[in-house]
Amino acid sequence: MQNRCRARPRVTVLLPVYNGGQFFREAVRSILTQSYTDFELLVIDDGSTDCTRNIAGEFTDDRVRVITHTTNKGLVASLNEGLSEARGEYIARMDADDISFPRRLSTQLKYMERSPEVGVSGTWVRVFGNGQDTTWHTPVAHDVIKSQLLFDCPIAHPSAMIRASFLRDSGLSYDENCLLAEDWDLWQRASDYTLLANIPKPLVRYRVYEGSSTQSNQQMQDATIFAIHERNLKRLGCEYGAEELRLHRKIGAWEFSRTLNFVIDSERWLLHLKECNDSEGVYPKEAFHRVLGERWAGLVFVAASAKIGVWRRFSGSPLTRFVKNRHSKLGRLWFKSI
């Protein structure tokens, strides 16, 4: 363990890494060149067998603190160790294959200082690699973020900043049973204790490439996602079987089929979710309706190749009144259908 002495910093940037030598140097430099300087970069090398350890040793900046594991303990164990070891008032997540924009820490810190009721903030992220160049426009307000957690994870993990006092007071940490969706699970539980938010600016560049953890562990991640979906549906008091669970997974992942039958099944399921939440009150009603409307509009437009039947379904559905700018969307769908 390498431990350079430093007064308590305002922010701890938590960067776990395992065999990340390909992009690790670039990720570290993006932190060390931040416009905001009162931070420590806590690197947890989880038993890497490539050049990661050597790269970590290159940095002589006294803000860098490195913990080295002799064996691989896994991402969740490293994250929880980082939460315990962090000295900052705020903990900013960072991955070894992503890049933080120069004003990321200063922007998030200012936001968290102005918003003491927010325990976790994320940002929009710029996705690049594998021919991609787009921005994830995640929801900004707590009620919408909380509602969207029923379907997917609306706070990008490498963009997150967490208030350390919130973690201490709530006793929350990452769950070993939720590997590869540990962030989604943590935000879900955190939403019962504190407000969540996203800053509507892309402050992190999120790299997509062959061999990334998401792509190489898809089967394991799918199992975790199904488990989270089941827990959320039970909490909502929904009745479901294997078919409904698979449908919910597809709707959550925006994996929409271009068939009228898919539209009909999805409408029935989304209305069932609405009825369950109307009864149980798990999610804020107005925001939950907005999230249902977004999924409904999205799947209908994908299925527009099923022609006029989809338009009729959309125009007559109770869900359509929850769709933002529904009248213009009805017109666009009509032209797409014919």
Question: What attributes characterize this protein structure?
Answer:
disordered N terminus, alpha/beta, single chain, 2 domains, 14 helices, 9-stranded mixed β-sheet, 17% strand, 338 residues, Spore Coat Polysaccharide Biosynthesis Protein SpsA, Chain A
Question: What this model shows, in words?
Answer:
By secondary structure, the protein is an alpha/beta fold. It has two domains: 201 residues, Spore Coat Polysaccharide Biosynthesis Protein SpsA, Chain A (Alpha-Beta Complex), CATH 3.90.550.10; 102 residues, no CATH class. Helices cover 46% and strands 17% of the residues. It has 14 helices and nine strands. Strands 1, 2, 3, 4, 5, 6, 7, 8 and 9 form a nine-stranded mixed β-sheet that branches. Helix 1 links the parallel strand 1 and strand 2. Helix 5 packs across helix 12. It starts with 10 loop residues before the first strand and ends with a helix. The N terminus is likely disordered.
Strand content: 15-25%
Structural class: alpha/beta
Give the CA-based shape.
Answer: elongated
The low-confidence runs, each spanning 5 or more residues with pLDDT under 50, are 1-5
The CATH superfamily of the largest domain appears as Spore Coat Polysaccharide Biosynthesis Protein SpsA, Chain A
Report helical residue fraction: 40-55%
The average pLDDT value, as a whole number, equals 93
CATH topology of the largest domain: Spore Coat Polysaccharide Biosynthesis Protein SpsA, Chain A
The total domain count is 2
Terminal Cα span: 66 Å
Radius of gyration: 21 Å
Number of helices: 14
CATH architectural grouping of the largest domain: Alpha-Beta Complex
CATH domain class of the largest domain: Alpha Beta
**Helix and strand element order:** EHEHEHEEHEEHEHHEHHHHHHH
Q: Major sheet: size, sense and barrel closure?
A: 9 strands, mixed
- Number of distinct beta strands: 9
